[in-house]
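Continuing the batch. This is chain 6 of the set; chains 1 through 5 are on the previous pages. Same settings as before, nothing changed between runs. Recording input and output for traceability.
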Amino acid sequence: MSVRSLLAIVGLLGMQSTSLAIENPSLDAEIQTSTLIHQGEPPPDFSCQTTDGITFTLSQQKGKVVLLYFFASSVPFCYAEMRYIEKEIVKKLEKRTDFVVLCLARGHTREEVVRIAGENHLRLPMAADESREIYASMFTKFVPRTVLVSQDGRVIYTSAGSREFEGIVKLQQVIARHLRD
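Output for chain 6:
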């Protein structure tokens, strides 16, 4: 996908597109430094309750590709990205039993997450990370953050920050590679 096409999509979603086109080596270095997980390694295990009351444990997802999306209400463009993830990734893969997604709300209560999902018409599986414990086991700062975990439980992709939407396009390619029949 060309940069022009990507920026057009971002514009359609009502997001600021100018930050996507700007390279910032110091920001890239800061993102890298604040990322505690690394490609090829297993991410820290965690358990949490989804807003639907289901217990999600990362280590119990072996055999599935797992998409984790960390967000916060202080970064409003996260909602547009989540709608895109829902429409362009999750809807297309909803019949697969080897793919799972969980959106984690950094610093929010369960009640806040339910409200956020309702106000933004989101139907993605979500969980509150009120104490930021899950987030802090993988990152020290910046949202949104995307993590993709392979069927064997290793990190295969991460993306962060102001170029996150561009990262979602790459994410689709990585998911497609790992979910080939």
